[in-house]
User: What shape does this take?
Amino acid sequence: MTNEIEKRFLSLPVEDRETIISYGASIRLTILKKRLFLAEQKIRNFEVRYKTTLRAIEAEGIPDDASYEFHEDYVEWHHWEAVVKKCKQEISSIQAIAQQGVHIEEYCNVSC
Assistant: This one.
């Protein structure tokens, strides 16, 4: 199935392929930036609620008297930190395509 879709895509004119990739990159970039914003907001909420950062908690350890809610938040906090890291990596890798476009001819062999 994937091979068939790839063949159909490669049968398009180069300009159409470039446009599809550039538009797709722009849309993906928008989605990633929204997710990054959400994740950063979640992290800020935890920092305000607990008046500390996850890095500080990691250095000092979880307090012995920490509530069940704190433990749940701690796990979620780690999740959102991972989301921020992943989004930033993906944004970085896609941003150049979205801003400058792609020139397929540079990456294709003669059969394209």
Notes: The two ends are 20 Å apart (CA to CA). The mean pLDDT is 89. The helical segments are 2-11, 14-50, 54-60, 68-100. The CA atoms of residues 65 and 71 lie 11 Å apart.
